[in-house]
Write a structure and sequence with these properties.
The complex is a heterodimer. Helices cover 35% and strands 22% of the residues of chain A. Chain A is of the alpha/beta class. Chain A folds into two domains: 2-43; 49-329, Rossmann fold (3-Layer(aba) Sandwich). The relative contact order of chain B is 0.11. Chain B is mainly alpha-helical. Chain B is elongated, with a radius of gyration of 26 Å. The chains are: A alpha/beta, B mainly alpha. Chains A and B meet through helix 7 of A and helix 20 of B.
């Protein structure tokens, strides 16, 4: 019965069906040909951008590379120290975008001094805007939960009050980077997007005890731009600190030694871990800044292998006296 | 305005409110963050949580008193919560609406009462028996209670998916055992294609509770026999499948008011009229009741068999969690603590901890942005049943008035020397020591432990007296999988066990 109801395929329908089948088959074959790759190595993703260095530095002026101001009032000492170097106008031109890189590593209140002090953030932001900055961004990839870190350290509220914008380390801000001449920064995710947004970069760090690297200061502060499982770099901490200093050539570093964390660093957690040292260091040479900072912890630059190595690579000088730092005292 | 329009507005309002309250369950000061929003509103209105914890602990935790409003309104007016308020019910109703056509004959047969609708009462009985009896009772209603279930699904599944794909959050959130949450959620949503509001009709233990207490309702759905033409159209959209065209089953009536709205016969009304065609009590048999009660009594020990390898003290609970035996009497598995936790370290337990602990909060230090942050006490303040008790910062840190007691200890960190880089391979590392947030640090080094290489190689040690088990070290440890420094629940404050 079934057979009797079937009609023979007409020539027209046969040709139509063959054409459709032919096109489908050809499309599948074309797609395969387009995607075809015989070399397994080429299927895996490409390695990251090759980067020479991210240079935000400004032309040096002899005798105006570094300043050290003593005093306990952070806004006053930092203002004075920048003034000695020619004022923020020397570093930030009108209309420029500035990135502040604090140490916001821990979800700790400011009193603990494990993070960059909010007063310092507020004052530097103000100085940037006074110099005509268009936008001031603040970023860090902290160790604890990023949002909690910025909130608890009060960096977020200091930024908000003064018009700076916090860039939380969103996953899409990271990009794999390969630094020319570096061994560890090789196809490694870095907090790249904030760096690309700006014309100037100012590092704002604290002088802290750090068992593994002996001291955490300006150069170690760039660790907060690393993404991924960055803990593995502790196996060769001096090398990664030097490579980070190779990668980032900041406009300025501000090293806060108002209260130095002399024990239980870099987290601290108690006021008894702090020592009043009343020193604010501002420098265009981060190696020199850290060399001075080391003295607050009772160390010589030679005690810190990363400083010695950085100097040998021409990233700065450990002999900060040769820069003829400008000294002053702030009474405020 | 038609009464069904009012009902729809109410459903949309409460559904939107529910989703909004889930969204704002985020630590922060902004308008869309938790800054005083009543984020436990629905969980507090849910009487199943209140009755369950009251049975298991013989106490009613203060915020759960709100559920009394729900109970009293249900006694007076019937299952208004199901028809007008319940966001999970609204979702089912909406999906059912999309899933089925408009042919009246099909709809009438689709909305026929099914004998299996009584199953939900048995489910309720099983849960309540488990909560009430035995020296070690357990609150399991949260597994199927629609409010915790929906809260959990939105918090741990839908919002993280939207957040990470739309790139609107700074850090993507992860929740282990999400597959199970997804399976349960999707199954119940998709079952609406088989029968409209499947979950509400057959599963929902909260609906069953309302079905048991609405028998004295003053206002009821009532068929006016003198106007009725027996067309049965009022059955065609009945959300509770309670058959207003036959004998109305009051216990099944969800107050969707669709029967009032069908055409203009005025044959069905919602009134105080004395009705002859009404059945006030659910189709429960004494045999069924006894069977369910026995199932409940037997189920708890049986469930524990699945998790037998897990002792009471094998799960790391958030700081402030009460002793384990009390904890499982209170935890609703709503996932509020997991949603609020800023570092995403609080995770829903999977089946490996037994069905009894499914979706209860445990710490997984290898997930999230950090371990348990020292200066955070968020989880205790959001827990709707105080399974995690609110701690002040002073109490958590053992400062101020609590300096005599010492800090709240979640567990203790152990160094696995077979994996730890300095111990196993002589490679410097010390990430754990650096990140220990305590002062003095609970992780220390002994410079002289390697006489050959005194300055270069420092190895970490844990001081168990100082360690609070926050897990920040485990989170940061560069060694893969569980890491080389592992927090266990040993020494946790809540169990008062002498250890270390």
């Amino acid at each position: 019965m079934q057979k009797m109801t079937q009609n023979k395929l007409s020539r027209r329908d046969f040709i139509l069906r063959c054409t459709k089948a032919g096109i489908s088959a050809a499309a599948a074959a074309a797609m395969a040909g387009w995607l075809y790759e015989a070399d397994p190595a080429k299927i895996s993703p490409q390695s990251g951008n090759i980067v020479e260095a991210m240079n935000y530095s400004i032309p040096p002026i002899a005798g105006k590379t570094m300043s050290v101001v003593t005093g306990s009032n952070r806004p006053a000492t930092v203002t004075k120290a920048i003034e000695l170097l020619g004022g923020m106008e020397r570093f930030v031109r009108p209309g420029e975008n500035v990135l502040l890189k604090p140490n916001a590593g821990f979800a700790m209140p400011p009193r603990i001094c494990a993070t960059t002090h909010p007063e310092l953030i507020a004052q530097v932001t103000k100085l940037c805007f006074q110099a005509g900055a268009k936008k001031v961004f603040i970023t860090d990839n902290p160790i604890n939960d990023p949002k909690s870190c910025f909130e608890l350290s009060q960096i977020a509220s200091a930024a908000q009050k003064n018009g700076a914008e916090i860039l939380l380390p969103r996953p899409d801000y990271f990009k794999p980077i390969t630094l020319k001449g570096a061994e560890l920064i090789n196809n490694w995710p870095m907090l790249y997007a904030p760096l690309k947004k700006v014309d100037k970069v100012i590092g704002i760090a604290i002088v802290k005890d750090h068992r593994r690297s002996i001291a955490s200061m300006s150069m170690k502060n760039w660790y907060g731009l690393l993404g991924g499982n960055r803990s593995i770099f502790h196996q060769d901490i001096n090398k990664i600190i030097v490579e980070l200093a190779m990668l980032i050539r900041p406009t300025l570093v501000i090293l806060d030694g108002t209260e130095t964390m002399i024990s239980n660093g870099p987290t601290g957690g108690s006021e008894s871990d702090l020592k009043q040292t009343d020193t604010m260091i501002v420098s265009c040479d981060q190696v020199a800044a850290d060399s001075f900072g080391a003295s607050l912890l009772g160390l010589k630059p030679q005690d810190l292998p990363y400083l010695v190595k950085a100097e040998s690579l021409g990233l700065g000088t450990t002999d900060y006296q040769s820069l003829e730092p400008l000294y002053a005292q702030s009474k405020a | 305005m038609k009464i069904t329009t009012t009902r729809r507005i109410s459903q949309i309002f409460f559904f939107t409110l529910f989703i909004w309250l889930c969204i704002v369950t985020t630590v922060g000061q902004k308008i869309w963050q938790h800054r005083g929003w009543p984020v436990n509103f629905f969980l507090n209105l849910d009487p199943l949580g209140a009755i369950g914890t009251a049975l298991s602990t013989h106490k009613l935790y203060a915020p759960l008193l709100w559920s009394l409003i729900t109970i009293i309104l249900t006694i007076l007016f019937g299952r208004f919560f199901c028809g007008l308020v319940c966001p999970f019910g609204a979702l089912h109703q909406f999906v059912s609406h999309l899933a089925h056509g408009k042919k009246k004959a099909e709809l009438i047969s689709l909305h026929k009462y099914h004998k299996a609708q009584r199953i939900k009462y048995y489910i309720l009985i099983v849960f309540l028996i488990m909560a009430a009896f035995g020296g070690s009772s357990s609150l399991l209603s949260g597994l199927l209670d629609p409010i915790p279930l929906f809260t959990r699904s939105i918090n741990l599944l839908i919002l993280p998916i939207i957040g990470s794909s739309a790139k609107i959050v700074a850090t993507n959130r992860f929740y282990q055992s999400s597959l199970l949450t997804l399976t349960v959620f999707l199954t119940f949503v998709l079952l609406n294609f088989y029968k409209p509001r499947f979950f509400c009709l057959f599963i929902c233990p909260l609906g069953a509770l309302f079905g048991l207490i609405n028998r004295f309702a003053i206002l009821r759905i009532n068929r006016n026999l003198s106007n009725c033409t027996n067309c049965k159209l009022c059955n065609s959209h009945c959300q509770g499948s309670c058959e207003p065209a036959e004998t109305v089953k009051l216990s099944e009536c969800l107050l969707c008011f669709n029967c009032l709205d069908e055409y203009g016969f005025h044959a069905v009304d919602f009134s105080m009229a004395e009705s002859k065609t009404i059945q006030v009590s659910p189709d429960l048999s004494r045999r069924g009741f006894i069977a369910a009660a026995f199932t409940g009594l037997l189920a708890l020990p049986a469930l524990r068999l699945f998790g037998a390898s897990y002792k009471d003290n094998n799960l790391i609970r958030p700081p402030g969690a009460i002793p384990e035996k009390e904890f499982i009497k209170r935890c609703l598995k709503c996932g509020q603590c997991m949603r609020l936790c800023p570092s995403n370290v609080i995770q829903p337990a999977g089946l490996e901890a037994g069905l009894e602990n499914l979706w209860t909060p445990v710490m997984n230090n290898r997930i999230g942005t950090s371990g348990c942050q020292l200066n955070c006490v968020a989880c205790g303040y959001i827990c709707p049943t105080a399974a995690i008790r609110p701690l002040t910062l002073a109490e958590k840190l053992g400062k101020g008035d609590f300096s005599g007691k010492g800090p709240v200890k979640i567990g203790t960190a152990f160094i696995d020397r077979s994996k730890c880089l300095p111990w196993a391979y002589g490679v410097p590392c010390l990430v754990c020591q650096e990140n220990c947030p305590l002062s003095p640090k609970a992780i220390y080094t002994q410079p002289n432990d390697d006489k050959q290489n005194e300055t270069a190689l420092l190895r970490p040690y844990v001081n168990p007296q100082l360690c609070i088990g926050c897990g920040i070290c485990q989170h940061e440890c560069p060694v893969g999988a569980k890491g080389a420094i592992i927090v266990t629940p040993d020494g946790q404050s809540r169990e008062n066990k002498f250890f270390l």
